[in-house]
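retry 2 of 3: previous attempt timed out while embedding adenosine monophosphate. Reduced batch size to 1 and resubmitted. Inputs unchanged:
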Amino acid sequence: MQVLTDIEPTRRLIRELQARGQQTGLVPTMGALHEGHLSLMRTARQQCDFVAVTIFVNPTQFGPSEDFDAYPRTLGDDLAACDSMGVGLVFTPTLDGMYAPDAKTTVAVAGLTGDLCGRHRPGHFDGVTTVVAKLFNILPCDRAFFGEKDYQQLTVIRRMARDLDLPIDVVGCPTIREADGLAMSSRNAYLSADQRRQAASLNRALRSAVDRAAGGERSAATLTDRIREEILAAGPADIDYIEAVDAQTLQPLRSIDRVARICLAVRIGACRLIDNIGVDVPPSAG
Ligand code: AMP
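retry 2 succeeded.
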């Protein structure tokens, strides 16, 4: 496994592999790797001859009062994990290597980024799309793998690739969870034991909503109100949002009359947790 920090040799390596007819896959991460990240690498290995992982804690997607400094950094363990997954290249750029001091360009996807996490984290998605566009250029792979855990991010990146004709297939991968349903996240390390138990309520409440929808409940407000009640019954939490949206456009829904996604962000203590679940159109209650 190669570990590279510079842009030019990284791009050269991917181009050489492609010239030899290899299918190349990209897994962008911020490190502190867990089973969720490893599942992306596994899928990439299944679909591609060569897998490149990027590890970069991207400052431009953190707000001024967010956890950029505290974000867990575990490079040694991460490299060992990548190696054990059969990854061929890890790209670990420096901050200066990624962002020239006089850089002036931002990639922004309008429309999909104003609501949900975008409403609560101004500028976050511009930071994400800009760094991902750069990574797509530095590592011009055939496919890139992203988790459904960050459903809005996946939707935004898909749209960016489509709108800008980027020659890369964006592949969404299912959320990997702890045994009690909590979506794996590098930020779960911030939770105390009590908060960790409480955090299981997020996925439990989302699954109950899917059951209610399958039973014929179409009202988005009824579904999201019940989710809110279930989460708050588990302990003190600040709810950023709980919203049912069109799974493609992320437009808010009043009624579950098409394939939907219920997305939420909840703060438990110092930890901001996100999760989401797909909801099919329920059968008519009448
Ligand atoms: P991050 O390191 O948090 O920026 O995440 C890097 C990639 O891993 C993103 O595409 C995430 O959506 C994905 N990811 C993070 N957690 C999970 C999880 N629990 N299951 C599946 N994918 C995940």
